[in-house]
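INFO  loader      accepted 1 record
INFO  loader      residues=125
INFO  predictor   begin
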Amino acid sequence: MTKKILLDTNFLVAPFQFGFDIYDELEKMFPYADLYTLEDALQEAKSIKSGKYKELVPKMLEKQDVELLTAEGDGEVDDLIVNISDDFIVATNDKELKRRLKKKGRPVIIIRSMTHLEVVNSEEY
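INFO  predictor   done
INFO  writer      dumping tokens
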């Protein structure tokens, strides 16, 4: 079964902040995985640093073939991610979101030491 990875806002801007390619790392860890993000996360990423990433993030998502999802319901991006997390491995470095996902028993991909990715809270991955 193909893995489905859901990228949080901080993973959308990470390629522009850190000196490594998170998409290359994801491909090494999960060959043939499908990548997704929420439309709300994209909008949030575009507004970071006074819109510094407004043009960059959508181009990167298109280049990496990341599918945009529209979440059901209202709420903050983190709430929407938690609500649909049963279907995904979530990629985030947000401390509170990681805590909430771990509490639900969900695997989480994190950026470790700003140099590589690691899966936490999972024996399977």
